[in-house]
Amino acid sequence: MKYYKYFFLLVIIGCSSSKIAYDYDSQTDFNQYKTFNFFEDAGKGLNELDIKRVTYEVTAALEAKGMQLTENPDMYINILSEERESLNRNTIGVGLGSGGRNVGFGISGGIPIESRKINQQLTIDFVESKYNQLIWQGISNSEIKEKTTPEERRVYYQKLIQKIMSNYPPKK
Questions:
Q1: What is the CATH number of the domain that holds 145?
Q2: Which residues form the DUF4136 domain (predicted)?
Q3: How far apart are the C-alpha atoms of 144 and 85, rounded to whole Å?
Q4: Does residue 23 lie within any of the structural domains?
């Protein structure tokens, strides 16, 4: 039973949650938007495979809300990504020590226990096509392991886009 406590602790420490922020034009009636498409340069900061993953997930989320992907849309979508290496501060300390009467010495050091991670800020902008004005924006800040399999990346983006798109259309 005591091993379950340690396993649970490791799961909690190992999971990093995404922080999501939203902003939108409060004067906009989002019910008027029925069609969408992506800007040609959508996905700046992502590789081609990640662009495909993100656009697929955004498309699936909007189609589930009754919207359609068309060539002459009501709104365009832009996707931007900024990545930087995350500082790894998790270590296990190892030490030796001894002491006697008022005399002591010690040696210690740290051993890293995690792999390197990338901090990613993903921004999704919805821009009205008629007036070219930003009407909705979702921004996520999250960490992803540097070495991930294609399936892990697909699942990562699937969950991330679901969180971002959960507030579109905004509830007034």
A1: 3.30.160.670
A2: 21-170
A3: 10
A4: yes
Please check the confidence at residue 92 and state whether its pLDDT lies above 70.
no
Complete edge-to-edge strand list for the sheet that includes strand 19-24: 19-24, 133-145, 117-128, 75-86, 35-38, 68-69
Spatial CA neighbour of 89 closest among 108, 107, 116, 119: 116
Residues 6+ apart with CB under 8 A from 146: 85, 115, 116, 117, 118
Angle 34-36-41 from CA coordinates, rounded to 5°: 170
Domain that holds residue 122: 19-86+116-165
pTM: 0.74
Q: Is the Cα dihedral 47, 53, 59, 62 positive or negative?
A: negative
**Alpha-carbon span 77 to 72, nearest angstrom:** 13
> How many other C-beta atoms are found inside a 10 Å radius of the C-beta of residue 81?
18
Cα–Cα–Cα angle for 170, 54, 142, rounded to 5 degrees: 75
Query: How many C-beta atoms lie closer than 10 Å to residue 75's C-beta?
Result: 23
Query: What is residue 146's predicted lDDT score, i.e. its pLDDT?
Result: 81
Q: pLDDT tens, 118-133?
A: 899 999 999 999 999 9
In a domain, 98, yes or no: no
pLDDT in tens, 25-51: 999 999 999 999 999 999 999 999 999
